[in-house]
Amino acid sequence: MRGQMMQAIQVRQYGGPEQLRLESVSRPVPQAGGVLVRVHAAGVLPMEWKLRQGFFKTMRPSVFPYIPGSAIAGIVEAVGPGVTAFQPGQAVFGRTNNGAYAEYTTAAVETLALKPEQLSFAEAATISGGATTAWSALFENAELQSGQRVLIHGAAGGVGLFATQFANWKGAQVIATASTSNSEFVRSLGAEQVIDYTTTPFEEVVRDVDVVLDTIGGEVLQRSMQVVKRGGILVSLLEKPSPQAAEQYGIRAMSNAPTFPFPSTSLLQTIARLMADGQVKTTIMQTFSLQDASLAHALSETGHGRGRIILQVKP
Ligand SMILES: NC(=O)c1ccc[n+]([C@@H]2O[C@H](COP(=O)([O-])OP(=O)(O)OC[C@H]3O[C@@H](n4cnc5c(N)ncnc54)[C@H](OP(=O)(O)O)[C@@H]3O)[C@@H](O)[C@H]2O)c1
User: Fold this and answer.
1) Nearest CA to ligand 1 atom 26
2) Fewer beta carbons within 10 angstroms: which end of the chain, N or C?
3) What is the rounded distance in angstroms from the CA atom of residue 253 to the CA atom of residue 270?
């Protein structure tokens, strides 16, 4: 017997954005500890086009076909056996490990939270993989404190815009990098000093920061080592920094390692409360329909822009 069907984006092989195809697939069934969510909005994270291109195929090969995406906001449609944390009809947001670019997905209750009314589904879908990553990097890994100075690279991006506001909220002094067109935007998020990376090498104007948050990697990561004060810390979202270079500069350097479950319900609630109170704002770069997921990926692949790209799954 055929179960209920849904529309979802499927990837059947590594390749370009054209590999994202809208297909009719079986609707998943929630298992113990999980819920079925009718997805209203899904965040488009850079990780998703990298996975699709096969960047991680030797380390972490994909199992095809798969439904991309992890950041969701939607309505609980049904709950799995034994689930009491959520009920059908509740608006939730958070992370799924079972694909977000779909009309329905299942998610573990420990990586979901109730969506505040003040946030739209699209806004709530910017939190997982953006705000949650910024929080874990700054506060769990770098242990950023009030009064410290932090350099945030890529401050206009889906992670950086939250990192800039969280650091400012914590009472740290924020120095941020962004392109010319995003400089004023990043200043409006609370950055005290904005360095236009298209005109000024940041290492010429910044030194002795307590923390660097690297959201770019490569030579930006390497050049960042020299601006951290001795005993300071560099956290990269992209790669494992060289321990030899870190030792040479007398700093700690690490790749971001969140604590599990990630993001936890309590972390999602903390962030949602700050947003509902108006202390932290999100920004949506552009919204696409589910069937235009390939256009959303093509935009994400440019590596430039302001805020998070969203798939509005339920119009
Ligand atoms: N390891 C993890 O847990 C984890 C989690 C989340 C994200 N990530 C990774 O972290 C990176 C950032 O994620 P995201 O979601 O914030 O990406 P995003 O939304 O695409 O934003 C990237 C930002 O970087 C800026 N940028 C590009 N080149 C720059 C440079 N040379 N210097 C300073 N800023 C520059 C762009 O701004 P302009 O338009 O101003 O150039 C853009 O706003 C991605 O590579 C992603 O895969 C890792």
Assistant:
1) 154
2) N
3) 27
| Ligand 1 within 6 A of CB of 254 | no
Q: Is 263 in the pocket of ligand 1 (CB under 6 A)?
A: no
Residues 204 and 287 in one domain: no
| pLDDT score of 2 | 57
Q: Are 284 and 125 in contact (CB under 8 A)?
A: no
Asked whether 153 lines ligand 1 (CB < 6 A), one says yes
Distance CA 315, CA 312 (A): 6
What is the per-residue burial (b if ≥16 Cβ within 10 Å, else e) of 179-218?
Answer: beebbebbbebbbebbbebeeeebeeebeebbbbbbbbbe
Is residue 267 situated within a structural domain? no
Q: Let me know: does 61 contact 126? Beta carbons within 8 Å.
A: no
User: Is the minimum distance from the CB of 285 to ligand 1 under 6 angstroms?
Assistant: no
Q: For residue 237, what are the domain limits?
A: 130-255
What does DSSP say about strands 34-44 and 308-312: parallel, antiparallel, or unpaired? antiparallel
pLDDT of residue 6: 98
Q: Does 60 reside within a domain?
A: yes
Shared domain check, 210 and 194: yes
Residue 65 CA, ligand 1 centroid: distance in Å: 27
| Mutation choice for ligand 1 from 159, 195, 256, CB with most ligand atoms inside 8 A | 159
The reply to whether ligand 1 has any atom less than 6 angstroms from the CB of 158 is yes
User: For the chain, which ranges sit under pLDDT 70?
Assistant: 1-2
Mapped onto helix, strand or coil, the DSSP state of residue 82 is: coil
9 assigned to some structural domain: yes
Measured between alpha carbons, how far is residue 281 from residues 171, 189, 262 in Å?
17, 8, 21
For residue range 38-64, list pLDDT tens digits in order: 999 999 999 999 999 999 999 999 999
CB of 224 sitting under 6 A from ligand 1: no
106 lines ligand 1 (CB under 6 A): no
* Encoded tokens for 306: 């302001």
CA of 181 to the centre of ligand 1 (A): 15
